[in-house]
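User: Last request for today: this protein with D-malate, please.
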Amino acid sequence: MIRETRLTLGARSTRYLEAGAGWPVILLHAFPLNADMWRPQLEQVPDGWWMIAPDLRGFGPAAEIPSGGRPPTMDDFADDVDELMDALEISEAAVGGLSLGGYVTFALCRRAPSRFNAMILADTRPQADTPEGREARRKMIELVHARGASAVADEMLPKLLGSTTRNTRPQLVATVRQMIESASVDAIAGAIDAMLGRPDSTGDLPAIAWPTLVIVGAEDGITPLADAEAMQVGIARSRLVLLPEAGHLSNLETPDAFSRAVADFLQSNM
Ligand code: MLT
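Assistant: Here's the final one, the structure of the complex with D-malate:
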């Protein structure tokens, strides 16, 4: 059973979903989604594990964005996770994320490496944006201010979901669209700004000393297999799982295979 909790961290109210009991696993969501994207994994938590999926700052139902504040940075997102771990009395955990969630995981790894006993990096990459990538992000900030979240959904859906999903699972396409459209303009623009400004984490890979699972959808066009292979080579105690018929949102597109890969990893490493 999935439990939903709202708590106050500093001056901000935030929400997290959780399921199971035992060793903690923290799962961080992709852009521009929210913790609900982890529901398929929270519905099948392996015995002995406690999965926790927080909304990143600004995302999720009834999210609060401090008015007049500066946009968040990747470090702010990571510090929020660190603060949540304190609030839940978790000293260390298997921490992971998908795409943006992976970028936040890298930031947390830089700021608080003692928080990790394992890592899950799904459909993500350590590199910073290229100059062309930054330019595209600036255009998307303009787009969301001019035309709102649904224009971002129009642009992103064909990239987020693989061709198998787009051709065969209209219900999932609609669910992801709805999740994107529920995000506020400020949350979307803020997260784009954070991604645009994130540093390159490639040099941090050799210091990752704990077991790491790298997962990638075979149809992921945003962070393709080559990125996952490079991460796997760069992290000593890592293994790579390739999920057929999944695109960038591999945990939603092939939920059972994704959950099985996570369960096998947790059970064989911890
Ligand atoms: C995500 O899925 O979080 C985003 O596609 C990441 C990105 O745009 O770099």
